[in-house]
Amino acid sequence: MRVTQSMLSNNMLRNLTHSSTQMNKYMEQLYTGKKIAKPSDDPMIAMKGVSYRSELARINQFERNTSEVNSWLDNTDAAMDQTNQAMQRLKELAVKASNGTNSDDEYQSIVEEAKQLKEHLVDIANTNVNGRYIFNGTNSDTPPVEVDENGVITPNFDPGDVLIEVSSGITVKANTDGSTVFGKGEEDLFTTVDKFIDRLETGEDIEDSIGELDASIGGILDSRAEIGARMNRVELVENRLADQKIVTTKTLSDNEDVDFAEAITNLITQESLHRAALSAGSRIIQPSLVDFLR
Question: Average model confidence (pLDDT) for the chain?
């Protein structure tokens, strides 16, 4: 086959163009820090990148969900701690009122403090966090405890569970049924407190309230223990999500991020090849008539 001058020139230009393209590829890798600039550069890397990013987005959403659960649990535990403190104080007042050594003023002070603690317990039962009543289940936009103008308390706790997904297929109950903390029916905490106040006002059977208040305190402690168990479980899920995030982020980096040492070496090598091609190409071009006339 006869090799013409035009064939040499075309081949040289094609090779120079390819060499320039390769140099541009390596320079763009150094500028962006990524192996590819567009999906067509390497469809496999691009597809894997989409998958890894979807996994990271899923993990991030689960982390937000665990944060939401922790908000519910932390606020619930704090409210139950306040409830326990109020009930412990009522028990102390019951013990103090039953010893019969109080003056009239001291006794009246005990009655007034008991009434204030009752109102405080109602406020705790109606704890509202971010516009939600945490002790009223799925009916969180309505206060669970109502008090009429005569001071009569009507608890109506919704037993519905607020379930939040914290990992694939794993949900955690974020709320606590208010009736497990404050009781229900004739055994609810508010009835116990009302009986105590009535006994203070009549001065009879005050000792009976000590055991009743103690039983209510036991129920609160049981509920706090259950909250603690759920907190521990959420913490374990959080640790696992953190590990998954580290692994997925590393895998995404390995898939897309450029090896700078390799990219710099490739660029220097390609630049040397390009210079050599330019030098060789300048010798291949046939001299013109003017060159012979010099």
Answer: 86
